[in-house]
Amino acid sequence: MRADVLLAALAFYLVSAALFLTLGARGDWGFILAFRGEKLLALTVVAVAVAVSTIVFQTVTANRILTPAIMGFDALYILIQSLTVAALGAGAAGWSGLPAFALETTLMIGAAGLLFGLLLRDSEDLNRIVLTGIVLGILLRSLNALVTRMIHPSEYAFVVARSYARFNSVAPDLLWIATPIVALVTAGLLIGARRLDVIALGRDPALVLGVDHRRAAIGLLVPVTLLVAVSTALVGPIVFFGLLVSAIVHQVAGTWRHATLLPAGALIGAGLLVLCQTLFERVLDMQATVLVVIESIGGLVFLMLLFRRARA
Amino acid sequence: MRLGPLIAGFALLILASLLLGAGRLDGDAPWLLAVSRLPRTLAAMLAGAGLAVAGVIMQMLARNRFVEPETVGTGQAAGLGLVVMTVLAPGSALWLRMVVALCFALAATAVFMALVRRLPPRDPMLVPLTGLVYGGIIAAVAGFIAYENDLLQFLDIWMNGEFSGVMLGRYEFLWLAGGATLLAWAFANRFTIAGMGEEMSQSLGLSYRQVMATGLCIVSLVSAVTVVTVGMLPFVGLVVPNIASRLSGDHLRRSLPGLAAGGAALVLACDVIGRAVRYPYEIPVGTILGVVGACVFIWLLQGRVAGQGRHAR
What we know:
The complex is a heterodimer. Chain A has one domain: ABC transporter involved in vitamin B12 uptake, BtuC (Orthogonal Bundle). Chain A is built from 13 helices and no strands. By secondary structure, chain A is mainly α. In chain A, helix 2 packs antiparallel against helix 10 (213-235), helix 3 packs across helix 4 (98-119) and helix 11 (241-253) crosses helix 13. Chain A is globular and about 60 Å long. Chain B is mainly alpha-helical. In chain B, 72% of the residues lie in helices and 0% in strands. Chain B has helices spanning 4-19, 29-62, 74-88, 94-118, 126-148, 152-159, 174-186, 188-194, 198-203, 208-229, 236-248, 252-277, 285-302. The longest helix of chain B is centred in the N-terminal third of the chain and has 34 residues, at 29-62.
């Protein structure tokens, strides 16, 4: 474990969080801290979920370009959301709460395991898999659009509101479910960090060291899917943020050990998201543009990675 | 291949498109047909034919089978141009917006082509991958501007193709796409040669740059016109040429009429499906095309032959 990297990442996060909580605050501090604190928690939970799921996914698939979001994981989650709403109706009170979330996440884990397990089965041609994943994402989004057109207008509004990324209206009840889930899954992955280190070596070395690579890889899809589901349920789809974070953390961490990569990635991701939110919300006074900027930068990073891979 | 059944099927599609809709054909039938159904049918056919041909031209120029203008940034850039015009000059005339959208589309396509030339030719998947991300970034910028100016609904109209708003007097720009298709036919042999690569074309005495510029103009014009009048129609330019080339090869002069007809039939069929599935309501043709096109795309990607096409080296 690299303590210096972790401390730097922690300091970065804490500074961002402090800025977010205090910058431009006027009036009753108790209210401000409670109000902003909830938002800070939401941003942090989402960033941690995205960062950790991306790093683990990249380890499992042995590359730095694929992310769950690029492969269409969150498009799948949104489609499942729409389908459950179409099948069961949005009318039931507390639908956005725990039972809906549990049902959707269970369905999601099953579907993701099936779909992406199939897709990742033969992994000799990475670009083909990435491209198929992106097109699969388009297909899932189109199917979602189709489903939303077929359902009742009031349910339509409900579903459409969920298929755009949003940071300003996180459901509080969902946040209190999401936080422990993300914390537990991340802790679980951290405990198994050495196993991840072995998997990162590739299939054959992992087998030699006594890790059933295939089974472990498919097993790891479950926590990844869970994290994606949580972040998508909280704020909607985010495509390139995870890629951006993983690119940064691999660049600065200077190690392959997941005991460092995972917490550093989580802290850097959260710090970055909070800092950007502070910058755009408080300093530049442009609401909800954070995502677009982060997504655009992430997209550029994606292109850069592609080009660099192509040159190599 | 026998043409008879195909022509009959096409005629049936046109008939279905003329007869199907929320309004009933009774006393006012001739009027309804002239003002709404016929323009709509024509618009679908013109857009489909234009996009299929634009797709094959782009594939020849990029030397890759998996690109088409509406997914690699041309259509998105036209949408961006429209958003910019709506913000900067809200009351401007339609033709002016059209011109600006065209300029944006041209610039974006030229940049994409420059990107493609820098990619190594070995991997056919890299080009569409780059294009999709590139198009996504342009769309994100358009989304950003639209969001800041409360124009998201407008953007949605341009980014998701739909024919329900087509009426007499509101689709005529699409004839430009038809004109561009004819122009492409006139230049067909040059595009076929350009599809063999820059060195080959030059040794055959062809000005590669000139053909490239013509191709870019045709592709951008068709995309911009489509986006301005009916919105984006994804995958038409990808699905039709890929299937056609399996049936009849890559000689553009010979295959172009079939391509145009195929594109027209595909868009028309998707529009008819969109009108029928949830009758009397409508599902936008862009959504149906997204589902159909993405399925075909994935099928093409999985196929073993996919990497062995003549352009996709």
